[in-house]
């Protein structure tokens, strides 16, 4: 803190105040004596093989919430992909910018499948950008199943990649009910960019008890926390 104060030519109080503001905006994470800017997310193929059984338990619980005839918006990420695998044989409309979800469901004739337009992020198997956001402004979904890089104790939903945040926010606006899918590693997880606060969520589906601080924040916002079946480590 003192080094930053000297380098910037401002008081330690000013540095501290600015770091608090930047953390609230999701641009960094404060640590003892300073702050860190977190790295971007890992490519899809790397994350897809991590905690698969836990993600499947969350996906199965999430799928059980949806009635046939519903419209479902699936976020990018590997947990949304595991959820898509649970939707085969259902009578649903699925909207997504997740290319792996599209590939999973494209041959299932019982599902009306809507692929959002946008810029292709090849390594992350997703579509992003203003075209994706414009598409979402023209659509409505009964359910959004949202992924995350981390959930802060205050209930803030975070992401590691800034470019994906506007799409996630547009998805939230397009949906009646927002369900966050978050395995145990997401509390607190990672993420430098704030997606939304707990007030924007209706439910959280997880596979482990949520820490007390986060649980309190979610309860105060009226968020229902649903625990999927326990998975052996």
Automatic annotation (TrEMBL):
Residues 1-37 form the HTH deoR-type domain. PROSITE patterns: HTH_DEOR_2. Gene3D superfamilies: 3.40.50.1360, Winged helix-like DNA-binding domain superfamily/Winged helix DNA-binding domain. InterPro entries: Carb_Metab_HTH_regulators, DeoR-like_C, DeoR_HTH, NagB/RpiA_transferase-like, WH-like_DNA-bd_sf, WH_DNA-bd_sf. Pfam families: DeoRC, HTH_DeoR. One of its GO terms (molecular function) is DNA-binding transcription factor activity. Keywords: Repressor, Transcription, Transcription regulation. Repressor of the lactose catabolism operon. Galactose-6-phosphate is the inducer. PANTHER family: GLYCEROL-3-PHOSPHATE REGULON REPRESSOR, HTH-TYPE TRANSCRIPTIONAL REGULATOR SRLR-RELATED. This is Lactose phosphotransferase system repressor.
């Amino acid at each position: 803190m003192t080094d930053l104060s000297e380098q910037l030519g401002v008081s330690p109080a000013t540095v501290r105040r600015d770091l608090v503001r930047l953390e609230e905006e999701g641009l960094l994470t404060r640590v003892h004596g300073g702050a860190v800017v977190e790295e971007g997310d890992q490519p899809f193929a790397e994350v897809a093989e991590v905690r698969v059984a836990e993600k499947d338990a969350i996906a199965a619980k999430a799928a059980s919430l949806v009635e046939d005839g519903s419209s479902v918006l699936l976020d990018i990420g590997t947990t949304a992909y595991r959820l898509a695998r649970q939707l085969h044989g259902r009578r649903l409309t699925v909207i997504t910018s997740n290319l792996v979800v599209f590939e999973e469901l494209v041959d299932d004739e019982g599902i009306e499948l809507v692929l959002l337009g946008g810029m292709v992020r090849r390594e992350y198997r997703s579509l992003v950008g203003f075209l994706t956001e414009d598409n979402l402004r023209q659509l409505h979904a009964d359910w959004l199943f949202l992924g995350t890089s981390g959930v802060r104790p205050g209930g803030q939903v975070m992401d590691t990649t800034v470019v994906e945040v506007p799409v996630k926010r547009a998805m939230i606006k397009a949906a009646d009910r927002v369900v966050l899918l978050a395995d145990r590693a997401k509390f607190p997880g990672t993420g430098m960019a704030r997606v939304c606060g707990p007030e924007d969520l209706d439910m959280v589906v997880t596979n482990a008890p949520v820490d007390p601080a986060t649980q309190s924040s979610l309860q105060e916002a009226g968020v229902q926390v649903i625990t999927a079946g326990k998975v052996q480590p």
